[in-house]
Amino acid sequence: MGKGYYISKHLATAAMVLAAIALVTIFALSVVYNREKSKNTAKFSNATTSPVFPTPKTSNEPWDKYRLPDTLSPQYYNVTLWPHLSVTAPAIKTSWFQTETQYLVIQLEGKPKPGKDYWLYTEFTGELADDLEGFYRSEYMEDGEKKKAFLCFDEPGMKAVFHITLIHDLETTALSNSQEIKNVIIDGTAITRTIFRPTKRMSTYLIAFVVSDFTHINAKDKKGVRIWARKRAIEDGQGDYALNITQPILEFFEKYYNTSYPLSKSDQIALPDFNSGAMENWGLVTYRETALLYDPRTSANGNKQRIVTVVSHELAHMWFGNLVTVKWWNDLWLNEGFASYVEYLGADYAEPTWNTVRTSLRGFFTNVPGGLERSKTPGVKLPYSVHEIMNCWILQMGFPVVTIDTRTGNVSQKHFLLEPEAVVDRKSEFNNEWCVPIKWMKKGQVQDQLWLLQKSAIHKPMKVSKNEWVLANLHVSGYFRVNYDLVNWERLLSQLESNHQVIPVVNRAQILDDTFNLARWENITLALRTTKYLLHEQEYIPWEAALRNLNYFFQLFDHSEVYDAMQAYLKKQVKPLFEYFGTISSNWTTVPSVISFVDNCISCPISNLEISNLYHQFFKMLYCTIRVVIHPNLRSTVYCDAIAAGGAEEWNFGWQMFQKATVAAEAVKLRSALACTKVPWLLNRYLEYTMNPEKIRKQDATSTIGYIASNIIGQPLAWDFVRANWDYFFQLYGTGSFTFSRLISDVTNRFCTPFELSQLKRFQKDNAETRFGSGSLCCEIRVIQILLQNVLLKDTTAL
Ligand SMILES: [Zn+2]
């Protein structure tokens, strides 16, 4: 059993030391200039009485604005020292905490002089709660809710050096962003003081502290890579995989960025309680256990794939995001977008045999600025400068759908919207037109690239004669969707059915994905017909696209009479594929080289495959002996099927296995499988468990409700449960939790009737916008989606 104290960035963080000791924080401030000070002269006649706080919306005071004034810039932070206030500094007149904007406002008697350095000493005592926010405690069997505050200039662009010291129990280890240099036992008291090297100049949101009884393994290399986790997990070798890949990925990014890794060490730590999947704190990356720990005996291929992509993503941030940082949060998309792109490159370097990763990305290479620069090779002409081309993509919202009419050769573009009737309020300076590079082929022959630079244009070569077809966005190298006239669609469909390999694999996935996304407002029949050729498809990417899109339909129709027909159809389509993998995996005893394919294949919503008998056999054996090893790739399905087929006895057995699970990935499989039961009272009891952190960890509560809601019997129960306990969930997760916004969409996923829609709208009305937090946008979106589904349902004859 592990215990630990973590601090993670997200909102803010600066300096904090722990335990029962009061804290002292010192900031060094430099007064850059005093432009704003005249506006801020004290308005308080008496320093001893509380000031009257202005209303945030109308006030012009700096502490009511979310952006920090630029009159001060932080230089460095020190922690755990005694106050030492300069006599020449103006005295503090009054101070208060402005809750709305989270400012500590300190008003001075006089004015600080421009260009001078001042030191500000503050003391504060924070409580370590288990609320997964800021500096929090993660322990078994604990409870208590209190928010804490941290004092710092919390804007990404306001970088400073941090001198950090942590005081902690003897048997624990302290970690922070920089290397620990001194670890002294304080005389007379049984506590340790760990001092860290001054950090590089860095943003406050990337600061992290961890005090734990964890242990680690390390690589013998210059990068100082260490993998930290619970003792048991490390002893079981669950950190080995992460250790093997971390250093190669760091080396890859050094070459890719042509810049050395900026720090002297790189700690990766797996936390049993963590709100997001991982966080890129500079030098001390924090992960959920499932994103870092891998046990080859119990974890599936998909778990391994997730680890390598998450580790690669976070390490990419060590440069892009941490070394080079956005000035303000409105450019965060750039940070995340870029890391999400290069994570595949790092993962591909670490696991070169997983060619699925490489295949899925190949197309993107030509679509980034670097790709455009490279394309300046002789023979390729750009219509505008790279700067101008990129501006039309990054300075306006969304992306286009390009429609090609092969009868006339007309090519046109418009803003792609899932709901075409939606009104776009925001004006675009580019008039919702993009500079679209269109790579394309005609009946299997690659053609010259075309640039679509206006709303529509005639491109003669795209006018085809009989039997010819056009396929645009070859290898999906552009960021847009494609639609065609029906005749061309028909020809593409017949090409897929007669010889699908003429069409590149990524484009087969694209055809499925585009038709399904266009189908939401155009042609459902066409979309469903694209799945017919899957009988012959053995590649991962098209199947992934098909299953992801079909899942939406399954959820929509699994309570209607067409469900049976859909299942029968998909069972027929997937059968050859299943047999193929059965053969190449020697009847499921070895792992096929195409990573995670099997995971995806069998976790699709088909419960009537012949092999489900095999699953039950497996589970029976497992039940009797507990020693029979089920292949990790099959476990999710086996567990779910067995619990769905069984009653309370099977459920309780599954629950015991969940509680005993020492590998996080295994625990997730069981937690998800427990939601498969068809017994309502078991589902209701399971829902209740999500409010008890001793049973379901707080980080897992909302996703557990999501699992229950994805079960057709559990869905109405989950909806009632969430509404009845909304205050509890909102208080706990409403602000700052990434998973919370999914809660509403999870519990209303099957909603499609006008009655259900009115229920959702009622719920939305009953809880004023302020009480939705990060769920409010999601609620709006669900209302729109349900309206759309109403339209779709009327069209079920398409099946
Ligand atoms: Zn990221």
Describe this structure in words.
By secondary structure, the chain is an alpha+beta fold. Among the domains are: 136-357, Orthogonal Bundle (Neutral Protease, domain 2); 611-674, no CATH class; 679-799, Zincin-like fold (Alpha Horseshoe). It is 37% helix and 16% strand. It is built from 24 helices and 27 strands. The strands form eight sheets. It has a five-stranded mixed β-sheet with strand order 14-15-16-18-17. A four-stranded antiparallel β-sheet has the order 7-1-13-10, with no helix packed on it. It has a four-stranded mixed β-sheet with strand order 6-2-3-8, with no helix packed on it. A hairpin with a 2-residue loop joins strand 22 (440-442) and strand 23 (445-446). Helix 18 runs parallel beside helix 20. The two termini are 53 Å apart. The structure holds zinc ion. Residues 280, 313, 317, 336, 339 line the site of zinc ion (ZN). It is an enzyme of class 3 (hydrolase). It holds the Pfam family Peptidase_M1. The chain crosses the membrane at residues 12-33. Residues 80-206 form the Aminopeptidase N-like N-terminal domain. Belongs to the peptidase M1 family.
